[in-house]
Design brief:
The complex is a heterodimer of chains A (166) and B (240). Chain A has helices at residues 2-13, 20-32, 42-57, 65-70, 73-77; strands spanning 84-93, 96-100, 107-110, 124-131, 135-136, 145-146, 151-157. With 166 residues, chain A is of the alpha+beta class. The longest helix of chain A is centred in the first third of the chain and has 16 residues, at 42-57. Chain B is of the alpha/beta class and 240 residues long. Chain B has two domains: 2-29; 34-238, Glucose-6-phosphate isomerase like protein, domain 1 (Rossmann fold), CATH 3.40.50.10490. Chain B has helices at 2-11, 16-23, 32-38, 51-56, 88-107, 119-131, 149-153, 177-184, 213-238; strands at residues 61-64, 76-80, 83-86, 112-115, 135-137, 162-165, 188-193, 204-207. Chain B starts with a helix and ends with a helix. The chains are: A alpha+beta (166), B alpha/beta (240). The interface between A and B is medium-sized, with 26 and 26 residues. Chain B: It holds the Pfam family Ribosomal_S2.
Chain lengths: 166, 240
Amino acid sequence: MALLRSLNKLVRLNPKIVNLKCVRTLSSDASGEKPPDSKLGGYAQAFEKFETLKTEESKELPQTFASLLRNSKFVDLGDPEGKVVTGKIFHVVDDDLYIDFGWKFHCVCPRPKKNAGEYVRGTRVRLLIKQLELSSKFLGYEKDVTLLEADCVLLGLVQDRSKNIQ
Amino acid sequence: MRSLSLLSRKWGSISTARLNSTLTEAQATPDPHKAALAHPDYFSVHNLFTVKDLFDARVHYGHRDGSLDERMLPYVYGSRLGHIIFDLDKTAEYLRRALNVAAHVAYRDGIILFFLRGAQNSHLVEKTAQECGEFAHTRFWRGGIFTNATKQFGAVTRLPDLCIFFNSQNNVLLQHTAVKDAAKMGIATVGVVDSNCNPNLLTYPVPGNDDSPAAVELYCRLFKAAILRGKERRKADFNE
């Protein structure tokens, strides 16, 4: 009874989250396995409540594309020119670093003179975006010609700000 | 054993199950393929991905406004500061249709050919084709491979039943010749079309990003899963 009462409270507060199937199986458990009149103690009651809470909140509501886009980092960026982002080096060819920063294209930057040896595959770096796509219209053509690359300036390594001083 | 099965694929032999059904009990047993074709999602490929998966794989990013092809406008959500954004709800619908077709073709023991022209992701596409037992062509495309196959290969050739283009353009940003040639030879085509591509000649276009390695990885994974499901179902339905 106490279990069902606590579940009822949950249902009234958040009717969307509580899964009916969950409620049904819990009630069948309560009637079948446990002795009928055992009043659950305070700790046991709280334990049951938080067990169900965990399984309910693990199911995420499907997000619409519009909301995903509106809350995305790309929209947060605004006008990309002049913005600083972090990227990761995924390929190195001698002195050219191929950096992916979460956009459609990667950017290619020359290896800087300072800390040259630290720029390897997997290094996280800071970039200043100049253009998100190197494409422009050439004279006489209707459509842009694109280079399939972004244009960024490599500012440096991402500073490790972890609090654990080893 | 493997060479025998390859030979049978090359010459296109009819499966024995189908032969039996047509010769012995023509009216009594219904055509097994009809049930599969009538079902809207026989292989449950609709659950292979969600819109969030597409979003995380950067499928909604397009090129700039200046290189937009007008024929892509129905699939575009809008443009954000000059950059085209695809409507992932529509993309999801088209992608599900394409995956269903790929699974059905694999179910009927069809030959599927993957195309991608671009050094960055070529190896991934070839590996995907090998893993799902299908074929890939990620090199220079000679003119008459489909249209002049008998002369080029020196023998009667079985052409693919489905062509999947992970990028419908070649290196110079012109449409891949195989799109036109497949249409000429009556081969169904599935193709990922970016905002600068022409979706007209593709049977099942999938509007989305074709430049990011993350997006190409996602497509490879999804098509491989769909094809393997089709093949598993074929084994289950006709070998029981």
